[in-house]
Task: inverse folding
DNA sequence: ATGAAAGCGCTAACAA
DNA sequence: TTGTTAGCGCTTTCAT
C-alpha cells in the first residue's frame, strides 16, 4: 500500500488528495481557495497531502465551472516585429501582473497564421487580447468581442471590427524628421521603407509629404524606395538611390531595419559622413554608429501599458462605452547624422 | 423571436448550436471534429448555425475530457534576455507549428515570478515546457515531469530536477576568444561580464582561464569586472579598468549588453581603435561599429529547434530513456576589433 | 465543520 | 444517420 490513488501517468486530482486524507473533495476545494469552514487539523493534513502528491489544480476545469475569468491575456505579435516589441511586452506584463494576470505571447506571421493563433487563444479563453495586426481582416473576432473579451489593437487599425486602438503619431514624427532635414538645407531626401500598404508606413509617408509641402516641395517618385522588409533589402535600395544620376543628399528611413540597412550601404559607399540620415524607431546602438544616428523615438513600453490599461479597464468595468483611439507622441532624438548639411 | 438561445453575455456553446439547428449536441460535435456519420444537409445547417452564432469551441472543456493534449507548449524566458531570444522563439515556433502546437511565451524575472509563471502554465496544462532558468531551484516541477510533461532547460542547467538540457559551448567559445586575443600578442585582457553566479558566465570565465593557462598565463583578479547586468554598468566597469595604473590592452566581454557598454566606454575614452575587443554573443549592428566587433557567435535558432525536437520527441515517444544534455558549438566571427595588436 | 449532488462544455462509449 | 448517457476536474448550491 503506497497510499497513491492517482491514476497511471496522470496527475493527482482533488479527488486523489481527498482520498489520501480521507476527507471529501469539497474540503480540499475549500483549503485550496482559502475558504473558511475547515478545521486547522484537516487543513494541515490536506496541505501535506497536496505537497506529497504533487497536486496542481487544473485551471482548465476550474475555468470551466466559474466561467468568468482565466487570468490570462493574449498578446499576438507579427514575427517580423519581435525585436521592437520587447518593451511592449514588458509594459504589458507590468500592468497585467498588477492585475493578477499572466500574459501569453504568441506570434502570427501571415494573415492565416494570425487568425489561427487568435482563434486558438480565444478557444483557450483568454480574458483579453492585445494584437499587433498582421492580417487585413479581423471581423472574425466579433463573436469574442460580443462575448465580452476586450480586444485592443496596437500600431495599426484593424479592419472589419471596431475596437480600442493604441497608435503612434507616425505622421507627426515623420513630418518632424522631414522638417529637420529640410532645415539643414536638404532639398533631395531619399526615403526607404517597408511596404506602403502597411498602415505605419503609409502614415509615415504621409507625414513626410506634409513636411515637404510645408516647405513648398513635392514628393519625387524616384527618391522613394518602398517595399524593403529586411535590412538587406534596404541596403540594396540605398545603393540604387545613389546609383541614380541625381542622388539625394539626405535619407529618411521608415523603421530601424531600414535604418540599419541604409547605414550599412552608406558605409560601403563611404558616404556615411556626408549623407544626412534620420531614422524612424530608435535602436540600441544608434549612438555608437558613425556618425551617431538621429531618430524619431517613441515610448514603446508606454504603448504596452496603455493597451493593458484598456484591457483591464474594460474587464473591470472602469472603462465603458464605445471604443476609442489613443495616439502616443514621438520625439526627435538628435545624435548627429541628421545635422549633416547637403554636400554636392 | 431571434432564434438566439445563448445565455446572456456568454458565448454560444455546442448546445446552443444544436438547439438552433434542432439536432443533438453530438451531431454538432461530429461536424466540429470531422467525424463521419452526419448527413450533408445536417452538416451544412450546423456549419451555418456555428457561423451565425459565432460559435467557438471551448478548448478548456475539450481538453478536460480527452485529457491527453492541449496543443500548447510553454516557453518561459527571463525578462533580461528577451532581445537575444528572438531567434530562439522563432526556432521553437517553427518546429511546434509543424507539430500542430501553439507556443505560449511568458516571462519570468525573479525566481518567485518564474515559479509562479511555470506553475500557471502547468495549471493550464501545457503539453511541454521550455525554460531558460532564472531561479535556482526547479524541484517543484517534478510532479509535472512525473505526469509526463517534457521539460527542456536551455542555456543553463536546472537544480533539483533531472531534465533534458540544451547548452552552448560557453567555455569553448571563451577559450577561443581568449586564444585569439593572445595570438595578437595581448598579455593583459580585461574581462567584463554579468554575475559570476550565472552558469553561462561561470563557464565563459572558466574557458577564458583555460585559454590563459594554455599560454602559460594566470588570471589576474584586477582585470576582472563581473556583476554587470546592464550596458551602463558594463560601461562603468570598462572605465574603471582603464582608470587603473596598469590598464589592459584588450577586452573580452561576456555577453552583448556588456559588449555594447564596453564599446560605448571605449568611444568616450577615444580608445576604440586601439583596444582589442572580442564579445560573446553576436548582435545586429556589430559590423557597423567602429571598429567592427569580433564576436563569439552561436546559432540561437538552432537552440530553439533542438529544444522543440526534444519536447515533441518525448511527447510522441520517439525519444525515451534518461534525459541528456546537448551542447551546441560556437564560432568566432572576426570583424576587426579582435585583431588590434597591443598598444602601449 | 463537512459533505452530496448538480453542472460547467465538451467527447467517448454505447445504443437506437 | 442520429441520440443518450456518463464523466473529465473542478466549483457551487444546498444539506447535514
Result:
Amino acid at each position: 500500500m503506497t497510499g497513491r490513488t492517482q491514476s497511471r501517468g496522470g496527475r493527482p486530482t482533488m479527488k486523489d488528495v481527498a482520498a489520501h486524507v480521507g476527507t471529501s473533495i469539497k474540503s480540499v476545494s475549500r483549503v485550496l481557495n482559502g475558504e473558511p469552514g475547515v478545521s486547522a487539523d484537516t487543513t494541515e493534513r490536506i496541505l501535506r497531502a497536496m505537497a506529497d502528491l504533487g497536486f496542481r489544480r487544473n485551471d482548465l476545469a476550474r475555468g470551466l465551472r466559474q466561467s468568468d475569468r482565466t487570468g490570462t491575456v493574449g498578446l499576438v505579435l507579427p514575427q517580423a516585429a519581435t525585436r521592437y516589441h520587447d518593451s511592449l511586452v514588458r509594459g504589458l506584463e507590468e500592468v497585467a501582473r498588477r492585475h493578477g494576470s499572466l500574459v501569453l505571447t504568441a506570434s502570427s506571421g501571415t494573415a492565416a497564421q494570425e487568425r489561427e493563433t487568435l482563434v486558438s487563444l480565444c478557444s483557450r479563453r483568454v480574458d483579453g487580447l492585445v494584437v499587433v495586426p498582421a492580417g487585413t481582416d479581423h471581423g472574425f473576432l466579433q463573436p469574442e468581442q460580443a462575448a465580452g473579451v476586450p480586444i485592443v489593437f496596437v500600431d495599426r487599425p484593424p479592419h472589419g471590427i471596431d475596437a480600442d486602438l493604441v497608435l503612434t503619431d507616425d505622421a507627426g514624427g515623420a513630418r518632424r524628421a522631414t522638417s529637420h532635414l529640410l532645415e539643414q538645407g536638404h532639398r533631395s531626401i531619399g526615403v526607404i521603407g517597408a511596404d506602403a500598404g502597411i498602415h505605419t508606413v503609409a502614415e509615415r509617408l504621409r507625414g513626410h509629404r506634409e513636411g515637404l509641402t510645408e516647405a513648398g516641395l513635392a514628393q519625387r517618385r524616384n527618391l522613394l524606395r518602398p517595399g524593403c522588409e529586411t535590412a538587406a533589402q534596404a541596403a540594396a535600395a540605398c545603393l540604387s538611390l545613389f546609383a541614380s544620376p541625381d542622388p539625394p543628399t539626405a535619407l529618411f528611413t521608415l523603421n530601424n531595419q531600414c535604418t540599419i540597412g541604409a547605414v550599412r550601404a552608406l558605409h560601403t559607399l563611404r558616404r556615411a559622413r556626408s549623407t544626412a540620415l534620420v531614422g524612424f524607431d530608435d535602436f540600441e546602438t544608434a549612438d555608437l554608429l558613425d556618425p551617431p544616428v538621429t531618430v524619431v523615438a517613441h515610448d514603446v513600453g508606454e504603448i504596452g501599458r496603455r493597451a493593458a490599461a484598456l484591457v483591464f479597464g474594460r474587464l473591470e468595468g472602469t472603462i465603458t462605452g464605445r471604443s476609442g483611439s489613443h495616439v502616443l507622441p514621438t520625439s526627435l532624438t538628435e545624435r548627429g547624422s541628421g545635422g549633416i548639411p547637403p554636400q554636392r
Observations:
- Chain B touches chain A through 60 residues (CB under 8 Å).
- Residues 23-27, 30, 36-39, 42, 61, 63-67 of chain B lie near DNA strand D (CB under 10 Å from a C1').
- The radius of gyration of chain B is 27 Å.
- Chain B is about 40% helix and 15% strand.
